[in-house]
Design goal:
single chain; alpha+beta; Heat Shock Protein 90; 5-stranded antiparallel sheet; 5-stranded mixed sheet; 10 helices; 14 strands
Length: about 500
């Protein structure tokens, strides 16, 4: 088992290094390519400017014999046309000469003659019409060679950058990969050590429940013969009939159920710590999970004298995911609502378009300002403004109670006034001390884990204000199973 795991870790390290190397190589190639384009543009612009300057200088000559050999000149003077001795076939451009002679405006053309391309400038200079032509083949070939050289340089630099970056990325990531591997091994070892006591706890709870039930049955059987003894029999009086404690049996059942939930949570935490070990998502009915979670939280709600309601108009709302992970969404949101509810907690499961919507609402003080930015972080803590207002009201009520008590009968005015002042000042000081240091509202890991689970199954979670303006609503949206392809999670 150790060798395949090490092979998988090396393969993951190689893939991560290659991804970084490819990204760095693409960045280098883009930067060098941009630099190459700039260089090519500058050279091409200089080449065009050089050709322009050559043509502008050539048309200032009056005779074709005075121009450089790489420039072809034609001079039209009073019906006579003088051209360079090496004028290529197709030049001069007689149409351009006639047009400039008629209009007097300079004309710039590109002429292809004899398989070559020429830049031609025709202009009037005094009584003459002068036409200069320059062969651009050499400049074009130089630009092509420059482009090829730049492309080869960028490709070579990209290959070198890829090789160097791959080596550097692997060297830099190896310590982090080893640390992650050590963490994963620690999680695996811890999970193995935790599974054993959880299994033993579940087994012992089941044995305890069976012993409670079997002890009740044995006590009932022993009480039958003892009740038939006559008054003259000198035997030991039977012990009182023993009956099983229903609360104890239910407590044993709850322990068994809780161990199953803990085992599922442990497995889910392991999947969250190492997503590579997750399996295929399976269809899960959220309505069934909601009923199970409400049943689990109902004893705590009764202990706190709160009403816990389930609103599920549809018989089945199916999503793809892990059963224990999705159950933890309900239990975490429900436990959070029970902590801050005044009288009622409501769990709702329904569909909306392509999503399954889970909403857990309460009628408590609601969420303080800034809740949505920090509530889904681990161990989030947000000060509650309404809590401070309630403490202020408590202080005011204490002061008014002291004043009312001080206004008692005249016979006890001094004593009562003193007592009232003491009560008022005591209440005021207590409330004042609490108001000076209001306790922040802590959210622990529950909501953070809910956000992680929702994100793992392509869902989202958010905090909403209650419809009536009091209380708070936490909403989780998950894609319905029929709209989400089955894949590994």
């Amino acid at each position: 088992m150790r060798y395949p795991r090490r092979h998988r870790e090396n393969a993951e390290l190689t893939r991560a290094s290659l991804r970084l190397a490819v990204q760095f190589t693409v960045l280098v190639v883009l930067l060098l390519g941009l630099a190459g384009v700039l260089v090519y543009g500058l050279v091409a612009s200089q080449t065009r400017e050089a050709a322009e300057q050559t043509l502008s200088s050539a048309i200032e000559f009056d005779s074709p014999r005075e121009v450089p050999l790489d420039v072809f000149l034609a001079v039209y003077d009073d019906g006579r046309l003088a051209v360079s001795r090496n004028m290529p076939s197709g030049l001069p451009d007689e149409e351009a000469l006639a047009g400039v002679a008629e209009t007097g405006r300079d004309r710039r053309d590109t002429v292809t003659a004899g398989g070559r391309t020429y830049e031609v400038l025709t202009a009037r200079r005094g009584p003459n019409v002068v036409q200069a032509a320059v062969d651009t083949r050499e400049a074009t070939e130089q630009l092509h060679r420059l482009a090829l050289a730049l492309a080869v340089s960028v490709a070579a630099a990209g290959l070198a950058a890829g090789a160097v970056s791959a080596l550097a990325a692997r060297t830099a990531m190896r310590p982090m990969a080893e640390a992650l591997a050590l963490q994963r091994r620690f999680v695996a070892d811890a999970s193995h050590e935790l599974r054993t006591p959880l299994t033993l706890l579940s087994t012992r709870a089941q044995l305890l429940r069976r012993r409670l039930v079997s002890g009740a049955a044995g006590a009932a059987g022993a009480a039958g013969p003892a009740s038939k003894m006559g008054p003259g029999d000198r035997t030991k009086e039977p012990e009182p009939k023993w009956t099983p404690d229903a609360e104890a049996v239910r407590a044993a059942d709850d322990v068994v159920a809780d161990t199953k939930v803990l085992t599922g949570i442990l497995e889910d935490l392991l999947m969250a710590a190492d997503p590579r070990q997750t399996g295929d998502a399976e269809p899960v009915n959220l309505v069934d999970l909601a009923r199970s979670a409400v049943g689990t939280l109902q004893p705590e709600a009764l202990r706190r004298r709160l009403s816990l309601e389930l609103d599920a108009p549809e018989a089945a709302v199916t999503v793809l995911g892990g059963q224990f992970a999705l159950l933890r969404i309900f239990t975490a949101l429900g436990a959070n609502a029970l902590d801050y509810a005044r009288t009622r907690v409501r769990v709702s499961v329904r569909t909306s378009g392509r999503d399954a919507v889970i909403r857990v609402s309460d009628d408590g003080p609601g969420f303080p300002p800034g809740f949505s930015r920090h509530a889904f972080e681990r161990f989030a803590s947000v000060r509650q403004q309404k809590h401070e207002e309630s403490l202020h009201r408590t202080r005011q009520e204490g002061l008014s109670a002291g004043t009312t008590e001080a206004a008692g009968t005249e016979d006890t005015v001094e004593a009562t006034g003193a007592a009232g002042s003491g009560a008022g000042s005591g209440a005021g000081s207590t409330a004042g001390e609490e108001a000076q240091s209001p306790e922040p509202r802590h959210y622990g890991l529950g909501l953070a884990l809910v956000a992680e689970i929702a994100a793992r199954y392509d869902g989202s979670v958010r905090a909403l204000p209650a419809a009536a303006g009091a209380g708070g609503v936490l909403e989780v949206r998950l894609p319905l199973a029929r709209f989400r392809p089955r894949r590994r999670i």
